[in-house]
Write a structure and sequence with these properties.
There is one protein chain. With about 210 residues, the protein is mainly alpha-helical. The chain has two domains: about 70 residues, Uncharacterised protein PF10387, DUF2442 (NE0471 N-terminal domain-like, 2-Layer Sandwich), CATH 3.30.2020.40; about 130 residues, no CATH class. It is built from nine helices and six strands. The strands form two sheets. A three-stranded antiparallel beta sheet has the order 1-2-3, with no helix packed on it. A three-stranded antiparallel beta sheet has the order 4-5-6. InterPro entries: DMP19_C. This is DUF4375 domain-containing protein. Pfam families: DMP19.
Length: about 210
Amino acid sequence: MDLSRLRIRRLEMDETRLLFTLVNGMRVDVLLSGYPALARAKPALCPHWQLTEDGYGVNWPDLAVPTTAGLLNILELLWKRRIEQAQLCLRTLHGCFDMLTLQHRELIGLDRLDMDMSGGGFARFFDSRDEATRTYALQALDVIGAHQLHQAIVGLNGLFGRLEQDLALLSVEDIIAAMDPLDKQRVEAWEQVYYAQSEHVARLGLTHYGLE
């Protein structure tokens, strides 16, 4: 997908929402309630927004220090909605992961990886997700071209998987305790790669999977 068509052309605001109009004519409605800094701001400050240099993000200099990506980023918003589409399909199938399309399995795998990495690191992902979910997450990172992320998660999955083969290790806590100093250094390094590179997933994911 050509992401240049998703650049922001116009932004309108009222008391409850933001309405983005994109270069391709698409309109994206966002509730202010999801962004406390904006929802709490004085109305006079809200119109003073600035586009980021790449045209995908919006900053409000009077509310927060401008960033390269923006306080709100349209690619992040659209990627979130793409993931929500896959989650809706999963709910429609009453949680039957195996009945999802390949694309939706990959999207759900990516979402679960991101959720667990944000909430506790790879140990949480390895402990709470089955092998199929981990496989589809890895497959998704590969197909979207997130090569450094893919290598990091392959390394983590391989390390945890190797230690899991020891039948004396009954839990993920046991696995972590059994790691030698080099293993722990590798885990930390690979996780840092993930945290540093995960901001690129929305752009890469939309480029590969599109909006629907």
